[in-house]
Amino acid sequence: IIDGTYAYGERIPAEIEFQNQYQVSRITVRRAISDLEKDGYVLRARGKGTKVIYQKSIEENLGKIRSFTEEMKQRKKIPGTRSMKISYECAPPEVAEAFGIKEGEPVLCLRRVRSADGEPIVYFVTYFPASLSMPMAEERYQGSMYELFEELGIHKPTRVIENFKSVNATNEIAEKLSIKEMEALLVRTRISYNYRQEVIEYTNSYYRGDRYSYVMELKG
């Protein structure tokens, strides 16, 4: 299952096949499959067999500032955008504080569902200060946001501050990510700065807990 011999959504062989292949008892096979089910690798259904539910998570190394598009390409996955909406909204308290403006002042908000190989992975809610004059045409946001920054002369962030926490999916986010309500999410809040140390982005990213993980290397 881990190396992909039995892929996600595929049914593994019947118990009798494992018995014959490994010359073991039916009790041994059942116990092994039961352990796999407890560990979240398979799901048994009466009359339907045993289906693989394990999916290898996408790992991101935190040692470098990357866009989602760059992350996916590095892992040889095809990045995509499932849905998006861009509009001016009133700045929430935490966004106003980051941008150094008053709560309720207009900021541009971009909401996107990004995918890897066609599968929804993360729901981004990104705020930009109105002073950046970001384009309102949704088609401009189909790809990498940081590449768009470069096109507009804003340039990629030179420094980011990130915060991580875990939450359960609301019904709205669950629908966007094709998961069940209350499933685990990894939430990353990113505040990005330009070379003048001005905040140019405030993003809340809601990652599917079953499809994403982070790797950090620390040296002493």
Kindly summarize this structure in a few lines.
Helices cover 22% and strands 36% of the residues. It is an alpha+beta fold and 220 residues long.
Topology:
Elements: H1 15-22, H2 26-38, E1 42-45, E2 49-52, E3 58-61, H3 68-74, E4 79-90, H4 93-99, E5 106-116, E6 119-129, H5 145-151, E7 159-168, H6 171-177, E8 184-193, E9 199-208, E10 212-215
Parallel strand pairs: 3-10
Antiparallel strand pairs: 1-2, 4-5, 5-6, 6-9, 7-8, 8-9
Count of runs of 4 or more consecutive helical residues: 6
Over all CA atoms, what is the radius of gyration?
22 Å
Distance between the termini: 36 Å
Gross morphology is elongated
Average pLDDT, rounded to a whole number, is 88
- Side-by-side strand order of the widest sheet: 4-5-6-9-8-7
Name the structural class. alpha+beta
Low-confidence stretches: none
Largest sheet: 6 strands, antiparallel
Percentage of residues in DSSP E strands: 35-45%
Helix content: 10-25%
Number of strands: 10
Q: Element order, helices and strands?
A: HHEEEHEHEEHEHEEE
Verbal overview:
The chain has 220 residues and is α+β, with helices and mostly antiparallel strands. Helices cover 22% and strands 36% of the residues. It has six helices and ten strands; from the N terminus they run ααβββαβαββαβαβββ. It has helices at 15-22, 26-38, 68-74, 93-99, 145-151, 171-177; strands at residues 42-45, 49-52, 58-61, 79-90, 106-116, 119-129, 159-168, 184-193, 199-208, 212-215. The protein has a six-stranded antiparallel beta sheet with strand order 4-5-6-9-8-7. α1 (15-22) crosses α2 (26-38). The protein is elongated.
